[in-house]
Specification:
The longest helix is centred in the C-terminal third of the chain and has 18 residues. This protein has three domains: 210 residues, Rossmann fold, CATH 3.40.50; 87 residues, Ubiquitin-like (UB roll) (Roll); 105 residues, de novo design (two linked rop proteins) (Up-down Bundle). A five-stranded mixed β-sheet has the order 8-7-11-9-10. A four-stranded parallel β-sheet has the order 3-2-1-4, with helices on both faces. It has a two-stranded antiparallel sheet with strand order 5-6. It has 435 residues and is α/β, with parallel strands linked by helices. Helix 7 links the parallel strand 2 and strand 3. The chain is built from 18 helices and eleven strands. Helices cover 42% and strands 12% of the residues. The structure holds flavin mononucleotide (FMN) and iron/sulfur cluster (SF4). The site of iron/sulfur cluster has 14 residues, from helix 14 and helix 16.
Amino acid sequence: MADYEPVLLKNISLEGSTDLKVYESAGGYAAARKALKMTPDEVTEIVKEANLRGRGGAGFPAGVKWGFLPKDREVTYLCVNADESEPPTFSNRVLMEKDPHQLIEGTIIAAFATQAQKAFIYMRVEFHEPFHVMQNAIDQAYAAGYLGKNIFGSGFELDVFIHRGAGAYVCGEETGLIESLEGKRGCPRIKPPFPAVEGLFHKPTVVNNVETLCNVPHIIERGAAWFKSIGAEGSEGPKLFCASGPVNRPGCFEGPMTITCRELIEGDGYGRGMRSGKEVKAVLPGGISMGVLTADELNMVMDFDDPRNFGLLGLGTAAAVIIDQQQDIRKVLANITRFYSHESCGQCTQCREGTSWMDKIATRIADGVGRTEDLDLIVDVTKNMGMMPGLSICGLSDGAAFPIRTIVQKFRGEFEAYIAEQPPTSTLRVLSTFN
Ligand SMILES: Cc1cc2nc3c(=O)[nH]c(=O)nc-3n(C[C@H](O)[C@H](O)[C@H](O)COP(=O)(O)O)c2cc1C
Ligand code: SF4
């Protein structure tokens, strides 16, 4: 988009962008100073009015979530979800690695609005560089008096801690994250109660994604109307998108949620087209867990609503995996089933068994010993798991079902052709896989 003015990534190419002085010389911390002169409810109202929807995957409006906190609470915690374990998503990493003070400023404002005096940044352990950059920025903010007691002379105090996770996908789920922060296995909790009522250490807790919080200072500084002028109704504000795979310029990009998947792949400000000789076969546009698009479906708008028109679960993390025509769809499927079968925490039978059955089926198809009935069987398994049919504690199993179901349904002809080409002796090997 030629006329799009970057907001979230505007500082990342500045020399020394991680430094407090550079951030302040670009206008940083003005929004936090402004917010801390308001009342917490006024700050929440502006964020509500802007309709800032969560960028962590579910798209729940941040201001509404903050408003769910009980009025009579004594303690509130803020958890910053920096687990970013959805393949192939890396926009939180870019924000933390290149502009850590933007996240700290968003955290201060969100903590003030929710009256949290302790904020925990839950970060995946593989993020070595972001960890060091964030910790250094937090130290700078404390030294400047922007964290700790009496921030900007407002009387408000906030301590921020980084907690490094141990590397499980499910710890990105907000209650898995809370359990992990409490020092337990990251097994998601049954809801209700939701974290806003009973979260970390059983106290009212808000969990927000890194990108969600990075939007907050800009909303306070420039207003809800400005925020809503970007994008379209229901999908307002700046958004980060990732593109991975055989495009000319893989990376993390910013734009409005009016771009299409095709624009993300081909646009000048985005992926700049497929590398020579490559053609799109399929795209997983929202991380892997939202489902797949075929090459004929690239006109899908990368917003919160349009993905459902294409049979997808949602926008997810808006990180696209682009798969070219040379790739074997059976291997794509088996790669995805292996991931979910490994990452299921095992609490819910349909998720624990379902992800593992799907992996067995997909693996035998990829190994050239599948049967046409396997395609029906695997789709059937996907229809009997997840929160949507009311069978699971968390959304991991919906996230497993959608890509697997849509890949098999949308590429069925290709699977059938592979199965038809298998040598007849493969049937004997099929029988042995049932033992
Ligand atoms: C299996 C699973 C993994 C998740 N991983 C992440 C993650 O890595 N980062 C994240 O922000 N949200 C993740 N979420 C979504 C969170 O549960 C939660 O909705 C989000 O952190 C709320 O923040 P937001 O409202 O600002 O988006 C995950 C959800 C599920 C079901
Ligand atoms: S749906 Fe899967 S990952 Fe989520 S709690 Fe149940 S078993 Fe664990």
